[in-house]
Amino acid sequence: MRYDQLKLLIVDDNQHMRVLLAEILRAVGVVTIFEANDGAEGLEMMRAHAIDIVMTDLSMQPLDGIDFVRLLRNSPDSPNQMIPVIMITGHSTMKRVSEARDAGVTEILTKPLTARGVLDRINRVINHPRPFVRTDDYFGPDRRRRSDPNYDGPHRRETDMPEPKRPGGAHLEV
């Protein structure tokens, strides 16, 4: 992985956390790191610079991480609706994780931060990108992480559909 080619944006209202995260990123070879104090400043930074990955805190004021991601994913003037977003949080309750996932976060990283955790999430968003899904009330990376062989609900996505068959059992090329 050529970390020196990445352009990352850190969005966090805590300067100490931004410094810690930037130092971890520099230690692994990331050269281009932009910083923002909150979600509004993060959006402006994204309009001014080509960013590859956003790492944002969940709890910020005045615009928190979840609202920032919602704007990023859904606003018509979003600088990049499909950018990978890694949410950093000390609130790893299922409710907060679900909120972040439902806002369109790509990955979640819980505090305390470790270099291994940071690298793992960066590698996941680069090496295993998830397809984006648009529904009436959601736009973001596919929230399904795995196929459940016991799933009994409706299969609504194109990737869930069986391949069309020709009469006589021959498969159609799609």
Strand content: 15-25%
Structural class: alpha/beta
Order of helices and strands: EHEHEHEHEHEE
Query: Averaging pLDDT over every residue, what do you get?
Result: 87
Specify the overall morphology. Answer: globular
In percent, how helical is the residue content?
25-40%
Uncertain parts: 169-174
Over all CA atoms, what is the radius of gyration?
A: 18 Å
Question: What strand order characterises the main sheet?
Answer: 2-1-3-4-5
Q: How can the largest sheet be summarized? A: 5 strands, parallel
Distance between the termini: 34 Å
Care to count the β-strands? 7
The number of helices is: 5
Brief account:
This protein is of the alpha/beta class. The protein contains 5 helices and 7 strands, in the order βαβαβαβαβαββ. Helix 2 crosses helix 3.
Describe this structure in words.
By secondary structure, the chain is an alpha/beta fold. The protein contains five helices and seven strands, in the order E-H-E-H-E-H-E-H-E-H-E-E. It has a five-stranded parallel sheet with strand order 2-1-3-4-5, sandwiched between helices. Helix 2 (39-48) crosses helix 3. Mean pLDDT is 87; it is low at 169-174.
Secondary structure elements and their pairing?
Elements (H helix, E strand, L loop, with lengths): L6 E5 L3 H13 L4 E5 L2 H10 L4 E5 L7 H10 L10 E5 L4 H10 L3 E4 L4 H13 L4 E3 L4 E3 L33
Parallel strand pairs: 1-2, 1-3, 3-4, 4-5
Antiparallel strand pairs: 6-7
Helix pairs in contact: 2-3
